[in-house]
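User: Assemble these into one structure.

Assistant: Restating your components, then the assembled model:
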Amino acid sequence: MAFNPSPGQFKALKAALFVLALLPFLRMAWLVATGVPVDPVEFLTHGSGDWALYLLCATLAVTPLRRLTGWNWVVRLRRMIGLYAFFYALLHFTTFLWFDHAFDVAAMWKDVLKRPFITVGFAAFVLLVPLAATSTNAMIKRLGRNWGRLHKLIYAIAPLAILHYWWMKAGKHNFEQPIVWGSVVAVLLLLRVWWRLRRTRVEKTAQPASVRS
Amino acid sequence: MLIRKNPNGIDLPFPSEITPREVYEGRRAFLARVAAGAVVGSSLWEMANREAFAQGVVQKLPATRNPAFSTNEKQTPFEDATRYNNFYEFGTDKADPAANAHTLRTRPWTVQIEGEVKKPMTLDLDRLVKLAPLEERIYRLRCVEGWSMVIPWVGYSLSNLIRQVEPTSNAKYVEFTSLADKSQMPGVKSRVLEWPYVEGLRMDEAMHPLALLTVGMYGQVLPNQNGAPVRIVVPWKYGFKSAKSIVKIRFLRDQPRTAWNGIAPDEYGFYSNVNPNVDHPRWSQASERRIGEGGLFTPKRKTLMFNGYNEVASLYAGMDLKKFF
């Protein structure tokens, strides 16, 4: 029997996850406030970008985890994880616009358009906005079937985020981390492809049988 | 179940049967060394050195300031200049060198000088340091990544050394090779760069009085993470041009293949003069963050041509610096 938390346990789990996902932010804020990082702008840029990526991977891991373990309840944590991914992406973008470009929007656009790795990262961020904006119960109800279609955008966002990371690190020839997280995203996406292929095959072989009966 | 439960305890294996022979014999040898004081002695020495660094107890290196070659801008705090380093031999993170460089042995140390010279020689550190009077020079340092520092270096013009070895007329370039020893430098195991790290200058660049053969900073010997025991500092070029922990200097007819230029020639030119008008493909070089100057809300500074060292401009007269970036 798969683990199935009681409502009380689920509440506690969710609260723990909320605090856990907030800790990286609190840590960064504390360190910057106390003047620990030598280059606070770089520290915030890298830290927020890293955590946006980790949490993107976590949202993508929810469905595989559910299918492999039978823990159906994890899907009820996905909205929070997704919103946290957006929160760190927003922090990443804010650092770029505020601390790196001092709100010089013209200079920011120049950077976004001129440098492919920023273009790609910016695209990933922009695509996250509608997902965050439609995360309320009311929006889920209002959009109906289209809600699911819209949120398939995550399958484009995650590879864009990896490409952004890869290109950024290419400047220093340091691919260790992009390889690790690129593989994580690849496995999480390929699992879905594989499941989809298997399902269509099952449906195809099932069809003649139904015709016969 | 792996744990055998025998009430008599008779067939329980002896530890010597579980542990491979070389390992337990190694332990004995270790204990013997401990008894002899060798291990304790050497680790205490290492700890003392590290302790000395942590406490700021340092080997002083007196030098007279050369005001003609010094800026009066606010110096970067020593703590920042020694905690934020690109020195990939000790890891790719800028905090890695400070954490890992204590394993570097800077004595004995020799620098081999060879190639197109009349007097090739191998100099040990003491001879190298005494070759010319040490000066303190406060230089701006601009990293290709877009940040900068102001550091008081201790050393003398590289030209002093070059004159000693008498380069032939064939010598057109100088190549600097850094130490690449896996046993002292954990980062050398990674394949981020080709090892050893090699940098180079054109002969006239190397002869320019601003090019500094450096053995100290902030009035003390170079901390390991800053390129001990001997490095060069070329203040009008991006920081990676200034090779650290140098073991070999070669004089060449042809332009050497240098570390970053060799693996990514579109991004890192051989010249790599600080130039606000030539962007790195991934970021603008028009401005820089001065480390230790305020925090998140401090506006960036405009980057200056040749990092503000306009006296080198004549070296590049008639050259298209967008092409030869």
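The radius of gyration of chain A is 20 Å.
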